[in-house]
Amino acid sequence: MVRVNDVRTTRPATARTYRIALIPGDGIGPELVESAREVLAGAVRGTTVELTFGYEDGGAQTYRRTGTNLAEETLTALRDTYDAILKGPVGLPDVRRPDGTEAGVLGGVLRNGLDTYANVRPITLLPGVRTPTTYRDGDIDYVIVRENTEGLYLSRGLGIGNQHAMCDQLFMTRPGVERVVRYAFGLAEVRGGAPADGQRRVTCVDKSNVLRSFAFFREIFVEVAEEFPNIEPDFRYADAAAHDLVMDPSHFDVLVTENFLGDILSDLGAATVGGLGMCPAANIGDRHAYFEPIHGSAPTIAGRNLANPTSQILAGALMLDHLGLAKVADQIRSAVRSAFADGAIELTAAGQPRHGTASVTAAIIDRLSQGQSG
Ligand code: IPM
Ligand code: MN
Asked: 324-332 contacts: CB < 8 A, separation 24 or more?
């Protein structure tokens, strides 16, 4: 559906008015983004903060309709008109480019287009969430900082080969690694350390035992670590990191890693905290940022009130943090936490809310309004 856009043209923002671009995306995206929009609106109700929302098109349906997954004009509007961007999941498995890759995926156009080099993925186990492990609330609370503009995925659209062979390249640059590692250390400075011992720690995750590109990554990590004497530099090969994130998650505080490894390890982390539907991401650059769930568009459950909107709602909270509205963001996180803790939201083994998407939204808004009146 194409919606009338009334935000691109509204008056200039006052200090407390924030213009939010919503990209509903594909599959379960529209219902998740609607849920998050309702929660955001509920969170600022009765405060001096005003959020205005504009809808922007992007993803597989946009590609199917127009031949491009995000119009140039939309990218310009995202860059210049809004204070923040909340994006739903995008991509549909049957909408592919001639080269076989998914056409709806916006990683290239948004992550590289907005130069959001740090993909920040908090992995937190909330009270009351059942998982395949025996960990409890408080045991798992780390952040994966995934390099977002280079690494293996810089090869997107550029793989070379023929019907007998195909090659993608993993590419890293010194400035690219430096800035994301520095971001990770900066984050560790403002967090409370690892659950196990309270130590502020940044773990470099790589395969420097095998590949030169990763040896380069680690070398730069060690250099940057020297700027942060109060933070413990820590190292894991990626395979061992996968093991330890399951066996000893409390050890971890902040992890920093290459794009492809971060993509995989963040899904692994999600599995330990109630599934992909629990995990938001912030895509942060020096000039732009956007916020989204870490998962895809799950078209098989779209429109059936089955999807867990928590990832999208928590992405909204990360967006508020970025806008300097940490207090409102904390209220949303507390509302989410308490709704899980007291069983108002319950997940099935598949990570779907037992009482439906809408019930999650309602439970969180309910707790927000209790907080506001109390
Ligand atoms: C993610 C997603 C995307 C990615 C997909 C949808 C292309 O899995 O944000 O982790 O691989 O980066
Ligand atoms: Mn992923």
From this structure: 325/18, 325/49, 328/43, 328/44, 328/47, 328/49, 331/43, 331/368, 331/371, 332/39, 332/40, 332/43, 332/364, 332/368
